[in-house]
Structure formats: C-alpha cells, structure tokens
Amino acid sequence: MELSQYLDAEGIILDDEIIGKLEGFAVLLHEWNQVHNLTGARSVAAIYDNIVDSLYPLAFIKIPKTLLDVGTGAGFPGLVLAIALPETEVVLAEPLKKRVSFLKYATMDLGLKNVKVEAKRVESVEHEAFDMISSRAVTNTKLLLDLTSRISDEHTEYLFYKGSRVFDEIAQVEGQMSYDIIQKNQRNYLYIKNET
Ligand SMILES: C[S@@+](CC[C@H](N)C(=O)[O-])C[C@H]1O[C@@H](n2cnc3c(N)ncnc32)[C@H](O)[C@@H]1O
C-alpha cells in the first residue's frame, strides 16, 4: 500500500510534495535501520504506521510556530511533524549518537530548512519558551513537564503520545492545567492546552 492510502484512511490531508518527503524519510529510515538498528519499525509498512501515528494530531492541535520534540529517536514524532509543518521551527532533542547521525542525515538529505537537531538531553537544551513540546515513549508526563519547565511558559502547549497509563499520569498533574485526551485505538494523545 502507498503512504497516501495510509494517510487517506485517517483523513490526513497533505500536499504531494510533503507526502513525497515522508516517503523519502521512510526509505531512508528503512535502509539505515537494517544496519544501525534505530527503531523497532522494521518494515516500510510499520514505518508508515508510525508516520500516521505521528501526524494524526494535526487534526486537533493548534499549529505551533516553534516545536520541541523530546527524545525523537529515529524521527517519531518530531521529524515527521517537521516534514508536515515546513513553517514551524522544530528542535529535536536526542542524546543517542547513532540516532542523532540519522536525524542529521535525514534533515540534510530531505532539504528540511526548519529542523535543528540538538545532540543532547532535553535538560541541556537552551531556547526561549516553545509554543509546543511533544514527546513519544520517553518518560512520564510529570517528568516531561519538569524537564522542560525552563523552556516553556504559560503559553506553551504539550502533545504527549501515550498509552493506557495516561490516566494515572494525568492524575498526578491534574488541576494544574487544561487538557484533552484523544483516543485512537491503543494510542491516547494527551494535549495539554493553553486556553488564553
Ligand atoms: C523509546 S525511545 C522513543 C523514540 C521516539 N520518540 C519514538 O517514539 O519512536 C526514547 C528516546 O528518548 C531518548 N531520551 C531519553 N532520555 C532523554 C532526555 N532526557 N532528553 C532527550 N531524549 C531522551 C532516548 O535516547 C531514546 O532515543
């Protein structure tokens, strides 16, 4: 199946140029993964599933001008969001060397002008407050909020890709912020919003 069919099935509408770049990313990741073992998504089809998972929130988020993705790994969701949002300045914080090499190579090869790869833990990232901070499969919600407190402010929104533990995790921060949990199959997207 083509990537466009995966996207159509979820109602994700993107320009052909962006879909071409996403396909290019999938080919690159598939090649690198055979040698460097970057992700558990071993087939192109599995990579397409991860692309759809990364992009699904475009249907409900406010598009940010600046986005930080914490622990991007092999590109999910930060690099994929950066491809789909060329007007958004995207910072990818990832400390693991071989994943950083891939992220930098893919950024260059795909000609992405809006991406900066920070080869460090998020605790060391220096930046003004981001409009949005995303993360998938890195750590729990409370710790993510704590680790990014220096680079966020009252306008920052958060998009965390969670599983079933989201309900326990949100109980730890409840009362502090307004949020939605958008469920899709096994995925719970935690969208912590700024209502101003
Ligand atoms: C399980 S992987 C998830 C990768 C990707 N987000 C995904 O969902 O496929 C977790 C990633 O978080 C990175 N990581 C762990 N602690 C981090 C930190 N403090 N700051 C930034 N990245 C971190 C790891 O190096 C690893 O690549």
UniProtKB/TrEMBL annotation:
Q: Which Gene3D superfamilies match?
A: Vaccinia Virus protein VP39 (3.40.50.150)
Function statement: Specifically methylates the N7 position of a guanine in 16S rRNA.
Root EC class: transferase
The EC code for this enzyme is: 2.1.1.-
Entry keyword annotation includes Kinase: no
Per the UniProt record, the source organism is Sulfurovum lithotrophicum
Q: Which UniProt keywords apply?
A: Cytoplasm, Methyltransferase, rRNA processing, S-adenosyl-L-methionine, Transferase
Name of the molecule in the record:
Ribosomal RNA small subunit methyltransferase G
Where is it localised?
A: Cytoplasm
Q: Does the keyword rRNA processing apply?
A: yes
Spell out the GO cellular component terms annotated for this protein, sorted alphabetically and separated by semicolons.
cytosol
- Gene designation: rsmG
